Amino acid sequence: MPHTQPQHRRKPIMVWDSWIVETADIGRLLRYWLDTYARPNVSAKTLDMYEHTIEHHIIPTLGAVATQKLTPGSTASVLC
After folding, report:
1. 26: exposed, middle or buried (C-beta count within 10 Å: 0-12, 13-18, 19+)?
2. Which residue in 24, 39, 42, 64 has the most C-beta neighbors within 10 A?
3. How far is residue 51's CA from residue 34's CA, in Å, rounded to a whole number?
4. Which of 70, 37, 65, 30 shows the shortest CA–CA distance to 51?
5. What whole-number distance in Å separates Cα of residue 80 and Cα of residue 77?
């Protein structure tokens, strides 16, 4: 019998509701993502890490930036 690779279940791809992309700031968008995608799809430890990173690193610097105004340059402040 031939050896086959185990089938890995892929997590669903996040589909953004247009209202949140068009009207929200980064903080609201990330909190929405945590509640609707991350919480049901990742382990508790991973969720804790995501929440900490978002609340303590991303939101303080980019949280008030409108999603439509986010640029590669504005993300540099978080990555550097």
Report:
1. buried
2. 24
3. 7
4. 30
5. 6
Q: Which one, of 39, 48, 78, 46, lies nearest residue 62 by Cα?
A: 78
Per-residue pLDDT tens over the stretch 24-76: 899 999 998 999 889 999 999 999 999 999 999 999 999 999 888 888 888 77
Residues composing the chain: 80
Element (H, E) at 18: helix 18-23
Start-end of H helices in 34-79? 39-41, 44-53, 59-62, 72-79
Domain boundary assignment for the chain: 24-61
pLDDT of residue 34: 94
Give the Cα separation of 30 and 1 in Å (integer): 47
